[in-house]
Amino acid sequence: MQPKLRAIFFDVDETLFPTSEFTERARRAAVKAMQDVGLRMPVETCYHELLEVISEFGSNYGQHYDKLLRRICPAYWQGINPAVLVAAAVTAYHGCKRDSLEAYPDVIEVLQELQRTDLILGIITHGLEVKQADKLLRLGVYPYLCPQAIFITEQLGISKPNPKLYRRACNAMGVSPEEAIYVGDHPVDDVDAANAAGMITIRVRRGGRHLNQDGKTSANYELKNFHDLDDIVRACLEAGNE
After folding, report:
1. H helices within 101-162, ranges in order?
2. For residue 191, with 0-12 CB atoms within 10 Å meaning exposed, 13-18 middle and 19 or more buried, which class applies?
3. pLDDT over 90 (residue 1)
């Protein structure tokens, strides 16, 4: 008999909101803001140079725009204080966060429904602790989560795709992996890892960089919108009551 479902944990990026769409919009806004205060480099050229910086130093690197100015020809910004250029980029990026960082509409609707159950609703996410926590607040999903069930890799010292991360979260909430669902988009970091931990896995396939990638294992379920999650949860609950 399948164990009774007791918890659902969610990934954040590309699962609760369209991360790739947002980051492209915000990065382009940052580059345009630099041009508006005097950068003489064409927007598209500068944008692709920025993407190289991000690829080489990682998305969580704290000085993307400083590094960008160091690697391009100084003639593009000669006579302009580089601090002004960096400030313009950072301000524009965070302006996009303020104005357009939103969860998929069906995410909020489904979380509202799930909150009426006895299930623990939590997060297992990779990234910097404040950065990921900020997303939960801006996306408007935090009110529907169990406050003790938020697990961020930087805080735990365990990163995806280590299955220990998922087992640690389940253990902290007093549930076995077999009693928990994990919902994520990444075939390796989310599906393979949570499968290895023994959880019920649901892969989100609604876009993003990993849409057409495959891991070594398959998820127990797939969904293209969060309303599909209602049916999956109902089936898991019924199976656990048999």
Report:
1. 105-114, 129-139, 153-156
2. buried
3. no
